[in-house]
Amino acid sequence: MMVVYILASLLMSCMLHGVWATPLDDYVNNLDPTYSYETLETFQGEGYTLYNINMTSQSWIPDLQSQPVWWHYLSVIVPDKILIKGACFLLIDGGTNRDSPPKPTDNFVRLTTVIAATTGAIGACLKQIPNEPITFKEDPDRKQRTEEEIIAWGWKTFLENQGADPEILVELPMTKIGFFHSMLSISL
Ligand SMILES: *[C@@H]1O[C@H](CO)[C@@H](O)[C@H](O)[C@H]1NC(C)=O
């Protein structure tokens, strides 16, 4: 019954929007003026440059939780000679918003660098997806939640509210992260 109700409300939402867009489409396509980025530091390596960027991706349900503005460390590696044009790759890493900026010697940054430098493609290592830790204001335990706990809290709330507010699902902001804007602007 619950499932039927949720499907019905999703269907209604699609009809109201006049297209078969899902709440995820709507969330991702909704331009967020919070988006910005700044280069924190630059490292010159042999055959490449590594930019450590602080990318602010979006605002996510500011009234409900402790991390209203999401920001991420994005390490972009630009080879001196770009051999593969019009394509790049992304490695998604974890981490928390309390971490210091990643070092070029960190495992996943290093891995991204080796692939970028040997293939001649621009690559990036993106951290803090999702942003964490997060404390939900309605959480009776007021616990600092990470990873699957954030996902579980979202789905619990979503189901209890009969699917009324899909934005509580952390998969939406996780999907939205518009990293390619930062990468493309830097490579020009
Ligand atoms: C990154 O940017 C966010 C949002 O502007 C800010 O709150 C955060 O302190 C910045 N982090 C670093 C390490 O500069």
Automatic annotation (TrEMBL):
Superkingdom of origin organism: Eukaryota
Asked if the Swiss-Prot or TrEMBL record annotates the protein with the keyword Signal, the reply is yes
Give the UniProt keywords, A-Z: Signal
Task: Report the Pfam families cross-referenced here.
Answer: PhoPQ_related
Q: Which InterPro entries match?
A: PhoPQ-act_pathogen-rel_PqaA
Q: Which residues form the signal peptide?
A: 1-21
Protein name (database record): Uncharacterized protein
Species? Dreissena polymorpha (Zebra mussel)
